[in-house]
Amino acid sequence: MTRFLFRRLLLTIPVPVGVATLVFSLLHLVPGDPVQATPGESASPEDVAQMRTRLGLDRPLVVQYAAFIGGAVTGDLGTGRQPKT
């Protein structure tokens, strides 16, 4: 019985990792640029570049994914609001 429970618990690890990977992939595959849409069309290119840096979207995709997983593991799922300037 203990062996069965251990196996079942061990098999639950790939599910959250798979879901997190799917969510991350879908967020990056959606057409459009969230940084361009957030401040609007009146934003200067410097403002857009600054927001991209602040949100970490200027980093390589692998680094973004590692930060995403690291945040999810520690319970940091984001704030759901735009960061202060």
**N-to-C span:** 55 Å
Taken from the alpha-carbon principal axes, the silhouette is: elongated
In terms of per-residue confidence, which ranges show pLDDT below 50 for 5 or more consecutive residues?
A: none
Strand residue content: under 5%
Mean pLDDT rating: 84
User: What is the chain-wise order of helices and strands?
Assistant: HHHHH
Quickly count the helices: 5
Helix content: 55-70%
Number of strands: 0
SSE arrangement:
Elements: H1 2-11, H2 14-29, H3 34-37, H4 45-55, H5 61-73
Helix pairs in contact: 2-5
Notes on the protein architecture:
This protein has 85 residues and is mainly α. It has a domain at 31-76. It is built from 5 helices and no strands. It has helices at residues 2-11, 14-29, 34-37, 45-55, 61-73. Helix 2 (14-29) crosses helix 5. It is elongated, with a radius of gyration of 18 Å. The termini are far apart. The relative contact order is 0.09. The mean pLDDT is 84.
Characteristic terms for this protein:
85 residues, 0% strand, elongated, single chain, mainly alpha
Condensed summary:
With 85 residues, the chain is mostly helical.
